[in-house]
Structure formats: C-alpha cells, structure tokens
Specification:
The complex is a heterodimer. Chain A is of the alpha+beta class. Helices cover about 40% and strands about 20% of the residues of chain A. In chain A, strands 7, 8, 9, 10, 12, 13, 14, 16, 18, 19 and 22 form an 11-stranded antiparallel sheet that branches. The chains are: A alpha+beta, B alpha+beta.
Chain lengths: ~675, ~475
C-alpha cells in the first residue's frame, strides 16, 4: 500500500481509532495511550454541567463546561506515560503552590507524597492530602462543584505549627467554545487555539478568564489595545457572550498577576522566581496567579478558599460568585452533601448488610450521576479527553442505562434512552446507514467520531438496553406510554440491524474493531446482532407491532451462532460461552449453561479492569437467575468484586496504580454487586 | 528703458537654484544606478544552514512581468489584490507600501530570500536611498547595533555586508548571514526568472520564468528508472484526477513522494500526523508484499481523484494503476496484502476483483483490473468509474510525469478554510474574516489551471521541465 495512501488513510483511521475498547474485548489501554496520550485523572466532581477532574496530586487536569462531554476549559495535555508527569508542561492545569524554605512547590506532582479520597461516603467532594518527606506540614485540598450552580469551590487547608504567610493559586484556564464534529480534539490538542484574555476584576481579589464567541481580528485587536492601556475591569465586560470563568478568593489577597502561560517571562516562571510583574491583564495564551493570605481555621490549621464560577457572561459569573460569598464555604459544602445524599436515597442500593459493598455501590452510582449531562441525558464513559473517552459510546452506555434501571432510577435510564433515540440516524448517507448509531456522541448528540467508523453493535446494544428498561416498568399506562415512545427508535434500529447482512453468508456485515482499527466480522458482532434483534422483537410484540422479518433474521442467525459456539459433539468451543447464554440461546436446564458459568469463573483471577468487571457482571446476571449455582463460584466472585469495584475511600493511594473513573466499569460492578445480593437475599 | 537690477538678480538666483537641484538629483540618480549595477558578483548572503533559497537578478522586473502573465490575470478575477496582506505587512513594518518601482528604488535589483532553522530573511543590494536612510537611522541612535553587527528597525533586524543588506524578523538569521560564506546560487539566465534551490536530503534546483503558464525547469537529486519507451498513463484518464504521479514502478513514485515530503519533515504537526498514521497499518497487520511485487508493471500511476467532505475529516479518494507491458492477467499484484482481511469477491464490468472493507463505504480497498491495467482504489465507486475508462494514452517521452489540477485543489482549500472559519481554527480570524480575507485566496488558487511536469533520469538526477500554471483550455500558454 502506498505511503501516501497509508498516510492519508492512516490519518483518517487514526482518528477512527477513537472507538474505545468493547467491554470484554482485549483492547489494551496502550494503543489509545500511544495515539492520544495517557489519562491523568483519579477523581472527579461535578453537577451535570460543570465537571472537574483532578489527578492524584489534586492538580486540576480538566474543567468541562457547560457539559461533562465537551469544552474543557483548562490547558492541559499529557504526552507519554514514561515521561515525568506524563509529559505535562509545568504551566498546564490549575493548582495550588506554596513557598517552603524560599523554594516554590506546586501541589502538582512529585516529590509530594499523596493520598486521595472522596470526603466521606456518598460525597462528591474530593480530598487530596499531600506532605513532603520529612516535613511537618500537611496540605489538604478539598474540591467540589455545587449541585445547582456552576460553581467550583477549591479550599486548601494547611496544618502547620507556624502560620503560613501566603499561598499561590495558579490557573491556566483556556476558555473554549469549540466543538468539532467527528473529531474530539478541540479542547485538548488545540489548546493553542483556545484562550483569549484574562484580567483582574474590580474587587482586587479575583480574576476573569474569558473568550467571546467566535472572536475575529477586530476582537483580538481590541483586546490587545485594552491590555496595552491597562484598561479598567469594566471595559472588559463589554465583550460578547462566550465563556467567562470568574475566580475570586474568599479571604484576603496579597496580589493578582496576569500574564502569558509560556516562556521565560510566564506567570509561572515569575511566581517561581518570587517576582511578579504585576500585570492586571493579558491577551492570548495566558494564565493568572492569585497570592492569597491564609486565614486561621482551627488550632494549627489555616485555610485559603477560591470560588470559581462559570457562565456565558461576566454578569452570570458575578452572580454565582455573589451567591458563594453570601453562603460561605461551610454552607456550600453542606448544600452539596445534602443534595447528593438525597439523590442516593432515591436509588436502590444492593440489598446487603455489607456496608462496604453498599458504599462502593453508592460510589458507582455517583460516578454515573456526575458523568450525566443534566440537560440532554447523555452519559460520558470517563471524564478524560486523552484518550477521548468524555463521550457517550452507545455500546458501553447501554450497560450504564441497565445499571440505572437496576438501581431503580428508571427516570434517568429513560432520559438516556431518549438521548440515544435522538442520536439515531434518520437520513441515510455514505457510511451512515439509516437506523445506525454513531459510534460515539458528544453529550449534545453531535457525532463525535469520524463517520468512517461504522459500529454496527451500537444499535444492537441500544435495543437491548431499551428492552431491559421497558421490562422493568410496571405494567400499565406508564409502560404502554414508554413502549409507544420508544417504538420509532426501535423500529428504525431494528430494521437496520435486521438488514445489515451479508447476502452470501447470512452473517452480519462488518463492524469497526477498535483493536484492529478496521472493519471486521467476528463473534461479538454476531452475538450482539442476535441479541439486538431479539430485543427489538420483544419490544415490537409488547407494543403490538408486527415485524415478521425480524423473526426470520433471528432464525438465520441462530445456526450461525451455534456453529461458532459448539463443536460437533455439542460442547463449547468459544472463549466466552457465557456470552452465548447472555444472548438467550441456551435453553433453561441445559447443563452447558453451568459449564459456561464455570468456564467464566475459571478465568476471573487472570482478568483485570473492565474485562474482570464484565465477566463478573455476566456471572452475576446468571447467578441472579440461578442462585443455587452461586456456592460453586462464590469465593472467586466476591474476591474479584472486592478487587475491581471502585473503593469509596480511596480514589488514590500511594503505591497503588492510579485508576481513572469509568462509568462502564462502575455500571458493570454495580450490576454484578446487585445481582450477587439478589441471589443471596433471603 | 532698462529692467530694475534686483528683480533680475532674483530671477537668475531662482533659475540657478533649480539648475543646481536638477544637477544634484541627476548626480544622485546616476550614483544610485552605478551602485545598484555595481557591487560584488553573487546573489548575496544567507545562513550557511539555509534549507532553501530563492534568488532573482532583477526582482522588480520579475514582479512586474509576473503580474502581467495570463495565470495571474486569471487569479485576479477571483482575488483582485493577491499581495494585499504582504503589502500591508511591509507597510506596517517600514511605512512604505511596496510596488515594483518602489522596490527597485529602495531595494535595488538583486534579491535573495532564504529559509533556515533561524527563520526566513531577505538579502538585497540597495542603492543610494536605503544607504542614506540607514545612516540617518543610525545617527538617531535608535538602530541599536549589537556586537554581532545587527541593527534593529522596529520588529526587523538587519545588517550590512559588502554592500548587501540582510533583513529578517529573526536576529539570529541576520547574524548567521553576516558570518556565512557567499550564498551558492546558480547563475542567472535572465531578468525574468526566479532561481529556487532546495538543500534537503534530495537537493534540487529549478528556475521559474515570469511568463504565461510560469514555465519551470530544473533538477532533483533522485534515482529513478530510465525508460526506453514513453509513458502512456499520465494523460490516459477519462476524467483527469486532481493530482497524479506516473513513473515506471512503485519505487520511483515513492521516491518522488518522499522528496515532496521533505519540506514538511520536522514540522511538529506533520510529525504528529505521521506518528498517528503509522499506528494504523501496524494494527491492520496486512501481509507484507514481496520485493518485486510490481515487477510485471511497466508503468505505475498514483492518483488523488479528489477529496470527499461529507464529514469533518476529508476522505481522500485515491487510485493506483499498474500498466503491464502485456495485457493484465493472473492474480492482482496487491492481492497478497489481503490475507488477514475478510475480502469480498467482486466484479466490475465483468472483470473480477475483490473489495476489502477497512472503514465502511468510505474506505474499502478495491482491487480490480480491466483489459489493460491492474487497478486499486480506496472506494468502490472510484473503482466502478475507473474500470475500462483509462485510454491507451498519448505517449509522454519522460521517465516521470506529474500532473496537478489547481481547480480541485483550490476547491478543497476553500472548503477547508470555510470549515476552519466555522470552527475558529483560522488563527485569529472568525468566519467573517475568513470569508473576506482567505476565501479569495482559495478561489484564486483554483484559477491557476494545470501543473504539468515531466522528468528524465540522468546520472542520479531527475532533469525536469514543464509549467506550474498552464491555462486549462490551451495546448500551450
């Protein structure tokens, strides 16, 4: 193949490689890290609009607004896992800094020794503690997002014998409004094209980073002129709507400094040198430093608190800051805790006396809740842009919907179902068959992956989750309304799936594979297609619609699956036989179902991460229907669940590998835990 | 009656002053001309590590003649002032809006531009006016001469060496030029030509004349096959592609592609794109081709048919044609690639082939043939259109031929610019700015016509000639 064809195809298909691993498929993180850089997030907080991610050191690595799924407002980019700090530039991100023995230490990376957790059970406040080896001072960062206002609260608590003199708060916001259809790189790979200006606000205790919508030559020239003449803050407010990030210290401030975010004279370099130029505004790629004076909190402890508001205009940001100032830190934290406590109370946690399991399940649900767009119902896979997982991937999102239904949150599952229904392609195009789904969407429904990528499994998984959702709604008017509401999407997706067939062999046509980075036809596609059409048929029958051609298609697929799954003696010959059971192809009482369970259990100890969670989930679903088979696999099941399920108390611990929050992982674990508890319930 | 004595003396004084002024001016003009025509031989100075140079014997004459060509006339129909941004930049930097005559007045005849790792700069041999301006500038103590002999004028740095003036935004560029040996540039053959040299891994030199169609000739250090028979593929297309390269075999085509890539190597965006692109063939794990896989082909043509913009990313539509000396028969030369791929047997106009979906309908490797040629395309509709459409083709007595149609290039650039404007990716320009400033550039580009180059292998070089912008509806410009 020619080099130029390779380059051209490679450039397209490299972006096509944005399809994340299929749950259960052997897609290692290395491929996506190699292409897009490693993830740098161990915890996140949010409110369905503003979503803030931190790494294990408490450094803010992403600030997405107005949705969890797009427009990261922070300049931050990782390069390679083997590099120090993953190759992130020192000037990236948002972080606290303290001067110790004349030297500036940013709470952003080594040599700090750190631990991180969510503040307490059911909390979305992240607590990151840091200390230097041999040091007597402990720094604790607390970070949370108010549930109803787009307000980020960041507090630093310093436990020290001597009163600290000043603390630095460094912010390299890179306001961004751009979202590029099919190419999810605008808010991290193109940070050099984001940002606009920063200025110190009229209170003298805050700064405002902003970017108006679609600035042109005139706006840039005007901004540069304002900076040149050191214009008053009110002059800056004349810019149009866009992204306005207003940050203000809750306590006294020694100085505010604005400047560029790169080079020898950058704001960061000045802060490290202990000499700030004192500029009150900057234009272009810029950052800011707030030098705050700590206030006594309690004996031997001092605090500095920053309120950061996000809005479309300066006035909107100012209003939020006024609210924050009026309420104060403690009240804001209490409101946040109360909100999420009430949210969890509406959920059905696993029925168990095991408080640890219940807490971990609650954490799984909160992970999902924070990842859900409050306006559209879209749910991102993970709050990271590198690799591009801050998108809704239907083949994974189906499990998230299922988990929400398992937790009794049918309302949220319904919203997610509506999101997918809206994303279905209703007009045919090249590479975009009618009734297919994009491989991934931004949370506003825009296609986020190049349409070169044809994920035929996506509508299949969507249909399965819709059928499961409908089945959980009590019979009656509500269920009828649900079925009728879903029917157009079911009809469209079911027709696509039934027609997506190779006329020569009867097998499904191709689907893009994330590992091979090209179209393949494999067993997971075959099984997903069968399951999807079966679900569509169930929904059709439940809602009184006739689709005989779907039944015909099922009858065509069944022998193909049996041929792939069983040898001539009828014994299993596929790697994951429980997947065949999950597709509904093993009749009740068939001993091969038990064999499938045993085969899955036998592989568990060797599995990690998503693969382990998926196996647990399937095993759990089986056990929930066959609780008498639990004793055979109970020990390995519980051991694995303890190993892979997110721990409420430890977002990150020293010596442990960093784990990126992941809604698919959370959903699978939650379903597995719930199923286990249902199987053991008296 | 006699005239009063005082008025007569006044009038005589006035005439003398005028005559003296004219005489002084005439002396200055004569001196200016002597300075410009004189001076050391050679094009001037640039950094020793310059990667490219462009030189002209008489830049203002070249400029004037280029503006009068039919190619620029066509461009002006869409882009009335092609140099407006440059003019504005020069005016902002110097206070003077450049025109050919002003250039000649201030900068003289000789012109040498170069690019190096330190930046881009210019070397000229000016006349009296610029030298006088420098003396005045220096006298005002604002020139800020450093130890390296470099002066400052606003954002520009400049220096003098043996009468040559070297100017750049990059101070290191000027300093390096002052220390470098004289620039090695080919001798000029006329006032209407631009001599360009590339000093990369495959050195190249070419001359472009400011005449209709912009005739060009030159040489590239490149090993390609010397042919006995003429090429027939370059102009065999029923629908000429946007761009094509035709040579004897794939190795020759690839060598030329590698040369075209040289100026981009080292650019961080290009390197990043290549790094990403390299992942894909590795993951595809297609079977490697044996050496000599195209041995049965007498000619090989790689064509970019066009770009499809149905999504954000443009998808290239490409074709590879292998023309054997005898009618195509036997297995397709590229068939061994598809071992791991689930290829679908296909047929186009009765000729058998295969279709291997790689990324849906948008990217499917199609291998086919017709009576004359082996064909490979990146989409099925491209193959369907191509089979049976290539003619025997007129003979092109060359070892390599390059064809490029500026119209689809300009259309693609225009679409890309519109998208960039909408996505705020055009620097500090928004959609309206792009429409006003940049779209006319793309439309002007589309009017350039055709680029046609043909080359012959000679002792490790490719000697080529052709046109950069031949009118599309003319046999010759």
């Amino acid at each position: 193949m020619s080099a130029s064809i390779r380059v051209a195809i490679g450039m397209c298909a490299a972006l096509a490689s944005l399809t994340a691993g299929v749950a259960g498929a052997a897609v290692g993180p290395d491929l996506f890290e190699e292409a897009f850089g490693p993830a740098d997030c161990t915890a996140f907080t949010g409110n369905g609009r503003l979503t803030v991610s931190v790494n294990q050191f408490g450094r803010i690595t992403a600030c997405r607004w107005p949705s969890p799924g797009y427009c990261d407002q922070v300049a931050y980019r990782t390069r390679e896992r083997g590099l120090p700090a993953l190759g992130v530039e020192p000037a990236d991100g948002v972080m606290w800094g303290v001067r110790i023995d004349g030297k500036m230490h940013w709470l952003a990376g080594p040599p700090w020794q750190v631990g991180q957790s969510y503040r307490d059970g059911g909390s979305v406040a992240i607590e990151s503690t840091a200390a230097l080896s041999g040091g007597s001072t402990t720094f604790t960062q607390i970070l949370f997002v108010h549930p109803e206002r787009d307000l980020l609260v960041a507090r630093l608590v310093i436990e020290s014998e001597a009163e600290p003199s000043e603390v630095y708060w460094y912010a390299n916001f890179s306001p961004c409004m751009r979202m590029i259809p099919e190419v999810p790189v605008a808010d991290w790979a193109l940070d050099g094209r984001n940002d606009f200006a920063v200025f110190a606000d009229e209170t003298g205790r805050g700064v405002c980073h902003f970017r108006p919508e679609a600035p042109g030559l005139y706006e840039w020239a005007y901004a540069r002129e304002l900076a040149r003449v050191k214009a008053k803050p009110t002059a800056w407010a004349g810019f149009d709507e866009g992204v306005w990030i207003a940050a203000r210290s809750a306590g006294p401030v020694a100085g505010i400094h604005c400047g560029r975010d790169f080079g020898e004279k950058s704001v960061l370099a000045q802060a490290e040198a202990g000499w700030m130029a004192g500029a009150t505004s900057a234009v272009g790629q810029c950052a800011s430093v707030t030098i705050a004076r700590p206030r006594p909190l309690r004996d031997g402890a001092y605090e500095v608190t920053q309120f950061i508001a996000f809005g479309r205009t300066k006035a909107a940001g100012d209003e939020i800051l006024a609210y924050a100032a009026e309420r104060g830190y403690d009240a804001l934290l209490a409101e946040t805790q109360a909100y999420w406590g009430a949210w969890l109370d509406k959920c059905r946690l696993p029925d168990t006396w095991n408080t640890d399991l219940r807490a971990r399940s609650g954490r799984c649900l909160l992970t999902i809740a924070l990842a859900m767009d409050a306006d559209t119902g879209g749910i991102i896979r993970s709050p990271v842009a590198q690799p591009p997982r801050a998108l809704d991937w239907p083949r994974h999102g189906a499990w998230v919907s299922y988990a929400l239904d398992t937790a009794g949150r049918h309302d949220l599952a319904a919203r997610h179902a509506d999101f997918y229904a809206g994303a279905l392609r209703t007009k045919a195009g090249t590479g975009r068959p009618l009734g297919s789904l994009p491989a991934a969407c931004y949370t506003d429904g825009t296609e986020a992956i190049p349409h070169l990528v044809m994920d035929a499994e996506a509508p299949a998984w969507m249909l399965w989750s819709l059928a499961e959702h409908a089945a959980r709604i009590d019979e009656g008017e509500q269920r009828t309304a649900c079925l009728e509401g879903l029917w157009p999407a079911v009809d469209l997706a079911g027709t696509f799936l039934a027609g997506w067939a190779d006329a020569r062999t009867g097998a499904p046509l191709y689907s893009f594979d994330a590992e091979a980075l090209r179209d393949v036809r494999d067993d997971p596609l075959l099984l997903a297609t069968y399951r999807g059409i079966r679900s569509a048929l169930e929904l059709a029958q439940s809602s009184g619609h006739e689709r005989p051609e779907w039944r015909v298609r099922l009858d065509e697929l069944e022998p193909l699956i049996r041929f792939r799954a069983f040898d001539s003696d009828g014994a299993w010959k596929c790697r994951h036989p429980l997947e065949v059971w999950f597709a509904g192809l093993i009749p009740e009482g068939d001993p091969r179902a038990s064999q499938a369970l045993d085969a899955e259990a036998g592989q568990l100890d060797a599995l990690h991460g998503i693969e382990a969670a998926r196996s647990l989930c399937l095993m759990g679903l089986y056990i929930a229907q066959h609780p008498e088979e639990l004793p055979r696999v109970d020990v390995v099941f519980r051991r694995t669940l303890r190993r892979v399920m997110p721990d409420d108390r430890r977002a990150f611990a020293a010596g442990a590998p960093a784990r990126v929050p992941d809604t698919l992982h959370a959903a699978l674990c939650l379903v597995a835990a719930s199923a286990l508890c249902d199987a053991t319930a008296p | 009656m006699t005239q009063p004595a005082k008025p007569k003396r006044r009038v005589l004084r006035g005439w003398r002053a005028l005559a003296a002024t004219i005489a002084v001016l005439a002396c200055c003009v004569w001196l200016d001309a002597r300075i410009k025509e004189g001076g050391p031989a050679g094009a001037g100075y640039c950094p020793a590590d310059a990667t490219w140079t462009a030189a002209a014997e008489d830049f203002s004459a070249l400029w004037r003649q280029a503006a009068d060509t039919n190619a620029i006339a066509r461009v002006r129909e869409e882009w009335p002032r092609p140099l407006s941004n440059i003019e504005l930049a020069v005016r902002k930097a110097t206070g003077i809006r450049p025109t050919p005559s002003r250039w000649h007045l201030w900068m003289g005849r000789r012109f040498l531009m170069a690019g190096s790792p330190d930046g881009v700069g210019l070397c000229v041999y000016p006349g009296l006016l610029m030298r006088a301006a420098h003396l005045v500038h220096r006298a005002t103590l604002r020139a800020g001469r450093g130890d390296d002999g470099v002066f400052r004028f606003g954002e520009l740095s400049y220096g003098w060496r043996e009468g040559y003036l070297i100017v750049s935004r990059s101070r290191p560029y000027v300093a390096a030029s002052l220390a470098a040996p004289p620039a090695a540039v080919e001798e000029s053959l006329g006032d209407d030509e631009l001599r360009v040299a590339w000093r990369g891994p495959s050195p190249a030199q070419f001359r472009m004349r400011a005449a209709d169609g912009f005739p060009v000739s030159g040489r590239i250090r490149l090993e390609i096959t010397e042919r006995a028979a003429p090429l027939t593929l370059p102009d065999a297309w029923a629908e000429p592609p946007a761009a094509s390269i035709t040579a004897t075999d794939w190795a020759d085509v690839h060598a030329l592609l590698a040369f075209i890539e040289e100026p981009f190597a080292g650019n961080p965006h290009w390197d990043e794109a290549k790094r990403l692109a390299a992942i894909v063939p590795r993951q595809w794990a297609l079977d490697p081709l044996d050496a000599g896989w195209d041995a049965s082909a007498d000619q090989c043509a790689l064509a970019l048919i066009g770009l499809e913009f149905s999504g954000t990313l443009p998808v290239p539509r490409a074709a590879l044609v292998l023309r054997p000396a005898r009618p195509a028969d036997g297995p397709h030369p590229l068939a061994p690639l598809l071992g791991p791929v689930d290829a679908i047997p296909y047929e186009w106009q009765g000729y058998p082939g295969v279709l291997a979906p790689l990324a849906g309908e948008n990217l499917a490797l199609c291998l086919g043939r017709d009576e004359r040629d082996w064909l490979a395309t990146t989409q099925e509709p491209v193959m369907a259109a191509l089979v049976g459409s290539l003619a025997a083709g007129p003979a092109v007595p060359a070892d390599v031929a390059v064809r490029l149609r500026w119209e689809p290039v300009g259309a693609a650039v225009e679409q890309a610019m519109v998208a960039m404007g909408e996505m705020e990716l055009a620097g500090e320009r928004n959609k309206a700015d792009v429409a006003a400033d940049l779209l006319p550039v793309a439309r002007g580009l589309a009017r350039l016509g055709l680029l046609e180059l043909e080359g012959e292998a000679q002792d490790g070089w490719v000697e080529f000639e052709g046109f950069l912008a031949r009118a599309a509806d003319e046999g010759e410009p």
